[in-house]
């Protein structure tokens, strides 16, 4: 029962803890411990009580703005401007609603561990927002069973129809980036992608492929390099691709971080951006504009995506309906100075 | 009475709320409201109760690791890698102690407003850590009176001897940056500084001046530009300085962000880094290494500074003594490729 379809579950026909305890054949304190995520309940009892909670649509009452009311924001890692943009977006909405923002990161894991989950449940947040990371199915159910909203920003995979997600038009962005280079006259356009298991990386890459096909340029798998969404990922892949017998004259990077690494590899090879090699990024974070040369890139509204996700979490926590469970915000190509026509050699 | 001198205040001779109420001539709920930062107490009553709390060394008991225990981390703004490094550092220590981390930002103000303060007090944190921002005197006293630890990372000004601070050796860093350029043979070395009212900016600038003096190079006020700690600040000042009749051959920037802006201005002027103009930054954040050319800069251990501050806050919150109220962590010059001898024109 997705929260979006049960707007009044918070206040209507809500079973009491005593009723749940009776149905489960356990004490009220035991039900309370399960609801609050305490560790001192055996796994079998926990699962049993969770099933009863789920079956009876239990949803703890929670006053927004009350002391202790907060949202949790979790990152797989905190590494840069993308992350501060997400925090800014969530914080602005949380603050507007008097909610504290608790930030945590998973030490480069994409799924939280049991300790993280236990702590989050014990803190009883109004909602949990994950950014470029995600809870596994069981963890999502644990939140749902406790009436804790769960929203994903920039999802790496689909969390299932009952959990809202907010993303950018990644496929359109990949298309726009590649098309820009093709329209400038490039024919050997390389793609440095993020990790392909993550939806945003895959969608951008598919957009790139679509642009090639529409321009009648054959796809060449040798011009693709997959790596981390970091400068070192772009550097490693571009170094390799620039050593090909017939190297690319242009690169579509998976994000701005990778684009910086690509520019570095171009420079190392004694070539210039954009005179010899063109580079288009993705993100348009602060560093894109102050780069030398200023980066042509696809702008995605990270802060707005995060604020939208926070707004959805707040609505769900207040028991209000959510109109759209899948939000994709538009991107746009920002032309600066890292892309130019290919050298006329 | 600084917490560092009252290690056992949390458990020994601690006056009860009832005793405070009796001494203040108010009800226990009123004292409780003041302690919890609730808004529904008149300002005179509040001040009166706060004075009694202060005089009697009231310190609320708080179990670390209990549900709701957390530290607050506040920024004047969340803008980039510096901020994520601070969050990483605080989060690692907070998480180790089972404390949640609540993050907020002040919308580019350097001192929190009354609403922020009210919310933080109502949440009853174990400690508050401010990064490149600070509470005013009254706000610091409000925390102290409630037994909430307050620690400043990268202080913009001195919060007074009873509040711990953790900074970098900013003066030594400014000295090292300028000395490196002077040793390369530069004689016209410009300084683009951060806002001089902020201690780190001023200390780095003073280090620059000391390096000039020790090298026997006269200080020239026309070679100094003060601006925001952002790329646009470095860009604006370097544009201006490069138009001087006798322009500088090298720049010491206040931080890496400004250094990026300086590089952009050099590029705009049709000059190259480092062949024509050398640039040294300060921070050594992730972007320094992936810049083209890789940035020579002064490394400051931002994550370690933040972790140290969090460790101090946790000790204070647990009623343990703090050995050093002023911590300055060492910096080091990292030579990459943005500084070279001056052109031999």
Automatic annotation (TrEMBL), chains A, B:
- The name of this protein is Substrate-binding domain-containing protein
Q: Which UniProt keywords apply?
A: DNA-binding, Transcription, Transcription regulation
Protein biosynthesis as a keyword of this entry, yes or no, is no
Query: One Pfam match, by short name?
Result: LacI
User: The HTH lacI-type domain covers which part of the protein?
Assistant: 15-63
Superkingdom is Bacteria
């Amino acid at each position: 029962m997705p929260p979006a379809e049960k707007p009044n579950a918070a206040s209507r026909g809500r079973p009491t803890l005593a009723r749940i305890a009776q149905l489960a054949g356990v004490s009220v304190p035991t039900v309370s411990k399960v609801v609050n995520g305490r560790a001192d309940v055996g796994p079998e009892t926990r699962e049993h009580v969770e099933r009863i909670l789920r079956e009876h649509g239990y949803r703890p009452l929670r006053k927004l703005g009350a002391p202790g009311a907060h949202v949790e924001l979790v990152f797989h890692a905190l590494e840069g401007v993308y992350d501060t943009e997400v925090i800014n977006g969530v914080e602005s909405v949380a603050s507007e609603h008097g909610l504290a923002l608790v930030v945590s990161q998973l030490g480069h894991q994409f799924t939280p561990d049991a300790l993280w989950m236990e702590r989050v449940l014990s803190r009883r947040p109004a909602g949990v927002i994950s950014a470029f990371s995600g809870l596994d199915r069981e963890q999502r159910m644990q939140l749902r069973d406790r009436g804790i909203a769960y929203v994903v920003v920039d999802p790496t995979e689909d969390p299932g129809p009952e959990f809202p997600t907010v993303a950018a038009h990644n496929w359109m962005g990949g298309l726009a980036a590649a098309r820009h280079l093709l329209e400038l006259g490039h024919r050997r356009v390389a793609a440095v992608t993020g990790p392909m298991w993550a939806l945003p990386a895959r969608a951008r890459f598919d957009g790139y492929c679509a642009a090639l096909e529409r321009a009648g340029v054959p796809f060449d798998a040798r011009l693709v390099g997959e790596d981390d969404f970091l400068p070192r990922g772009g550097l490693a892949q571009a170094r390799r691709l620039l050593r090909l017998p017939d190297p690319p004259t242009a690169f579509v990077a998976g994000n701005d971080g990778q684009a910086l690494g690509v520019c570095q590899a171009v420079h190392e090879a004694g070539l210039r951006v954009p005179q010899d090699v063109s580079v288009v990024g993705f993100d348009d974070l602060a560093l894109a504009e102050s780069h030398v040369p200023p980066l042509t890139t696809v702008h995605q509204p990270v802060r707005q995506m995060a604020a939208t996700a926070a707004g959805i979490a707040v609505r769900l926590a207040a028991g209000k309906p959510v109109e759209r469970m899948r939000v994709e915000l538009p991107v746009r190509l920002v032309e600066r100075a890292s892309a130019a026509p290919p050298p006329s050699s």
